[in-house]
Specification:
3-stranded parallel β-sheet; two-stranded antiparallel sheet; binds iron/sulfur cluster; 8 helices
């Protein structure tokens, strides 16, 4: 069995070649299709978990993702009919202004505008489902974060006294509840805008 119990979540920002190659580079779509076909041959997308991730195309002010369910149907029917590809879920995520995306927006001079756009679309109904409520991210040093976005921004989980927390601290205390608050920053508006974005896709 090739999986070892591991599920795969793979980025495929569109089901159409032009859009993927424009966003990720020439030839990325072809390589992605071949990779998905190999994963299907190993049982991913069938008995083993295979999810795809959609992000809106980057631009000076990227839009929020369209509704997830109809987009998933469009992905499934096109990829099945054209390439025989099967997958389980499509996760539609907004572009979080972190890492390379934040640098791109800064180069465009639109980082503030994008944050204002996300904040203007704040949806309180997304908050109960945010992944920082019940997930942790761990980096290679054992440093803990509320989510992988905070990990990208080097915003670690902290104790009530403000000390960065590690996996070793939690193991020593026999508790994962050493932090009492989530470390938030402006990029959190990316998770809470519109239908919301989380590791399980849209939230509402
Ligand atoms: S809302 Fe903020 S802390 Fe929570 S998952 Fe999103 S980026 Fe991470």
């Amino acid at each position: 069995m090739p999986s070892g119990g591991v599920g795969i979540v793979a980025s495929l920002p569109c089901y159409l070649e032009d859009n993927v190659d424009r966003q990720r580079g020439h030839g990325v779509y072809d390589a992605s299709i071949r990779a998905l076909q190999r994963l299907n041959a190993l049982g991913y997308g069938d008995t083993l978990p295979l999810d795809l991730v959609y992000n809106p195309p980057l631009g000076p002010c990227p839009p929020l993702p369209p509704p997830q369910a109809p987009l998933a149907e469009a992905y499934k029917s096109f990829l099945a009919e054209t390439f025989g590809i099967r997958f389980h879920r499509l996760l539609a995520l907004a572009n979080l202004p972190v890492g390379r995306t934040r640098h791109y927006l800064e180069r465009q001079g639109s980082d503030r505008r994008y944050l204002q756009y996300l904040a203007a679309h704040f949806n309180p109904a997304t908050v109960p489902g945010l992944m920082c409520g019940d997930h942790l991210s761990v980096d290679y040093r054992g440093q803990l974060y509320d989510c992988d976005f905070n990990q990208m921004e080097d915003l670690p989980l902290r104790s009530p006294l403000g000390q960065p927390l590690t996996l070793a601290d939690c193991l020593a205390a026999h508790s994962l509840d050493l932090a009492t608050t989530v470390q938030t920053a402006a990029h959190c508006f990316g998770c809470t805008a519109g239908s919301g974005s989380s590791c399980g896709g849209a939230l509402t």
